[in-house]
Amino acid sequence: MKKIMFPAFLCSVIVFLFLLAGVASGLEQGAILYHSSKDDKIYGRDAELVLPESVLQIAFRQMKSGHVGLYIGNNRIIHAIMPAVEETDSVNFITQKDMDEGCRYIGAKVPVNFNDPIAWPLVKKEQLILEAKLQVGAQYDVQFRHQKGPYAEGFTCVGLIEYIFEQVGYDITPPGYYKGGAGGKTYTQIYNSEATLWKDWPGYNTFSETVEFSKFEHPLADLLNVGISYNGDRYMFFPYTQYLQTTTVAVATDIPVSGGGSAQEEDSDGGGSCFIATAAYGSYLHPHVQVLRTLRDRYLLSSKLGRTFVAAYYHYSPPMADFISRHDTLKAAVRVALLPLIGLSFLMLWIGPALVLVMLALLLLLPVVLLSWNGIRS
C-alpha cells in the first residue's frame, strides 16, 4: 500500500509544480522596463537633480536620465538607443558596460487594466507589439527635438514607449508642459564649464511628475537647438516622469534584463558596432574596425544624413555580416575590399575631411592634366 501511495504522492507534487509554473508564466509582452543611469542615478528620483553642464558630458552619455524599453515576448525587447531603434535580446537592456558603470534595474510596469480582456483584448496587445516593430530602424533623436517621433523625426527612449502606447489608444503620461510650481520639482542650476567660458550661468530647470515635458535651461540649448521648443522655452521628456504615472502598475520581472551587449552597443564605447567589418576581421577590437567606428562617431553621427545612413546600415547589414562570418574565403575577400575605405577613413581622421576632398579632387584632375600636357608637347 505504501509503495503505491508514494508514487501517487510524487505525481501529485509534480502536477502541482507544473500548475504553479503555469500561474507564473513569465513577464507579459507589452511590459515597460526601466533602469537608472551611471552610478545608479536617474533624473527626478534622486536628490542630485542636475543636468550635464558641458558638451563633453553629453557626448559621454552623462545625462543620467535613465532608460526605458518595451518587452515584446520571447526574451526580446525594443528600445531607442544611439543611433537607432533596435530589437534585441532582453539581456541587452542593461549591457555589461552599463552595469559596470553602476546602472541598475528599476522594474517593469504595465497599464493598470492590462489584465482586463475588454480594455486590452489580445488583438490590441498584438497591435501594440506590431507598432513597436514598425519603429525599428528609426533614428535616435539626438537633439531631443521631437522625442515622440514619428518615425521620420526620431525618438528618445521614453518618447518611443509613449508613442507606441498612444498608437493603440492608451496615454501613459498626460500631455503638457511643466514650467515649475505644483506637480513637480524646480531648482536653479549653476553651470560653469567651457559652454559658459567658465563663468557662472544660472539655469532654471524642472522635473515634471504629472505631465510629459519638463522645462529646462542650458547655455547651449539655443545654440545647438536642443529640446522641444514651446512658447519660447525648451522642454525634455524624462523617463522617470513616465515611471511615476498611476496609469501603470508594477509587475514582477522573471526574464533576464542585464549582462549582455546589444546589437548597437556591442563595442566598448556604446555607440554601435560595424557589423560587416567586425565579421570580416573577427573582432570589433581590430585596429581597422576601430578606424571605421571612430569615423562613424566623429563625422557620420554628427549630421542628419550620416545618422540616416548609419540607421539604415544597422537595419540591413546584420544578416550580411552573419553570412560573411561563416565563410573564411568571403571574410578574406571583404577584408581586401574594405582596405580602400579604411585607408580613406584613416586619412579623414588624420588630416580632416576637407583636405581629403582636395586630395581626391587633385587625383581625379591629374589624368586630365597629364593628357593635356602630353597634347601640348606633341
Task: Summarize the structure in short.
By secondary structure, the protein is an alpha+beta fold. Helix content is 41%, strand content 18%.
- Largest sheet, order of strands side by side? 4-3-2-1-6-13
Instruction: Kindly state the percentage of residues in helix.
Output: 40-55%
Largest sheet descriptor = 6 strands, antiparallel
Order of helices and strands: HEHEEEEHEHHEEEEHEEHEEHHHHH
CATH class of the largest domain: Alpha Beta
**Beta-strand fraction estimate:** 15-25%
The low-confidence parts are 1-25, 55-61, 264-272
Strand segment tally = 14
Number of domains: 2
- Determine the oligomeric state from the structure: single chain
Secondary-structure-derived class: alpha+beta
Output the radius of gyration.
Answer: 26 Å
Basic shape: globular
Total helical elements: 12
The CATH topology of the largest domain is what? endopeptidase fold (from Nostoc punctiforme)
User: Please, what is the average pLDDT?
Assistant: 82
- Proper CATH architecture of the largest domain: Alpha-Beta Complex
Topology:
Elements: H1 2-23, E1 32-35, H2 55-59, E2 67-73, E3 76-80, E4 85-89, E5 94-95, H3 96-100, E6 105-111, H4 122-134, H5 157-167, E7 177-178, E8 184-191, E9 201-208, E10 213-216, H6 221-224, E11 228-230, E12 233-237, H7 239-243, E13 248-251, E14 258-260, H8 275-281, H9 287-298, H10 304-325, H11 328-351, H12 353-377
Parallel strand pairs: 5-14, 7-10
Antiparallel strand pairs: 1-2, 1-6, 2-3, 3-4, 6-13, 8-9, 10-12, 11-12
